[in-house]
Amino acid sequence: MPKSYGQLETVQITVKLPPKTLSYVRKRAEELGSQTEAVREAIDAVYMFFGLPDRQVELLRADAKREGKDEHGYIRELLAKRYEELLLEGAKKK
Can you give the chain as a three-state secondary structure string? Predict the structure, then answer.
C-alpha cells in the first residue's frame, strides 16, 4: 500500500526511461503499490539522503557543498570510494 503523506502538491509529468530503469520502476511499483510511489521513493532517496536523520543530512550537505558537488555527484563519489575500498580488501584476501 502506498505511503500516506501530509500535504502534497500534484505534478503530472511524462518521463522517458531507459529499459533498465523502467524495469526497476516496475519492480518497485509491484512492491510499493504504484509507479508513482516508486518514482517518489527514488527521488526522495537521493534528495533526502536515504532517510538519514536531519543532523546527519545537514553535515553531509555541508560536506558536499565544500566539495562543490550536488547530491548525485556526492553520493556517486562516496560509492566509488567504497568500491575502491572493497577492491583493496579483496586484493588483501588473495
Answer: CCCCCCCCCCCCCCCCCCHHHHHHHHHHHHHHCCHHHHHHHHHHHHHCHHHCCHHHHHHHHHHHHHHCCCHHHHHHHHHHHHHHHHHHHHHHHC
Q: What pLDDT does residue 92 have?
A: 84
pTM: 0.69
Choose among 75, 81, 52: nearest CA to 63.
75
Cell (9 digits) for 23: 524495469
| 67 band by pLDDT with thresholds 50, 70 and 90 | very high
Cα distances (angstroms) measured from residue 69 to each of 42, 50, 58, 81: 19, 17, 14, 15
In angstroms, the CA 6 to CA 30 distance is 23
Task: Give the pLDDT score at 93.
Answer: 81
